[in-house]
């Protein structure tokens, strides 16, 4: 074989490798979207928060899994938004996770003092309502490790979405304050946005019940 022929084979092989790598990358993005057309998991944590780095904090926090996506599309404003579940890093199609029942979304960050005071009350409220209301917290800072350690410190075990880019809050029109709570009706419409801190489960229940009337 001539030298030019060998170079041709090398170039063809290199192109084949690049094409194969591209297909693998595209396949990973499709699978990360949880099967929702056009949806991709947003990277919403620090580069330092690798699977290995998060393993210990996740074990300490021992959070419950996030709600699985159902067959219904859920709130229109949240369709196409996929974030990670802080418990295990699984992708969560937010709209589908909230479909079919009233929901309470609590927006917070690990460095927020009033949030730390409110989270135990939110956990108490979730225990009271059981399966009647979907209660989710949404961590709005890229430091996922700090969020997990804060929840472990507080002894709060709530399903938590990691949304360091504030995509959920932006989609719902939530002011850039924390804590803030969004109450959604069973049909996915926003009943009320509550940019305030609660100190007891009774306060939360009263505010949610009033919003859902």
Describe the structure.
- By secondary structure, the chain is an alpha/beta fold.
- The protein folds into two domains: 32 residues; 172 residues, Glutaredoxin.
- 43% of the residues lie in helices and 16% in strands.
- The chain has seven helices and eight strands.
- The longest helix has 30 residues.
- Keywords: Cytochrome c-type biogenesis, Disulfide bond, Redox-active center, Signal-anchor, Transmembrane.
Summed up, what is this model?
Keywords: Cytochrome c-type biogenesis, Disulfide bond, Redox-active center, Signal-anchor, Transmembrane. With 213 residues, the protein is α/β, with parallel strands linked by helices.
Quaternary form: single chain
Determine Rg (CA atoms, Å). Answer: 21 Å
Shape: globular
Overall pLDDT = 85
Features:
alpha/beta, Thioredoxin_domain, 213 residues, redox-active center, single chain, eight-stranded mixed β-sheet, Glutaredoxin, 7 helices, Redoxin, 8 strands
Task: Write the topology of this structure.
Layout: H1 3-32, E1 40-41, H2 51-61, E2 81-85, E3 91-93, H3 94-97, E4 103-108, H4 113-129, E5 134-139, H5 144-154, E6 160-162, H6 167-172, E7 180-184, E8 190-194, H7 201-212
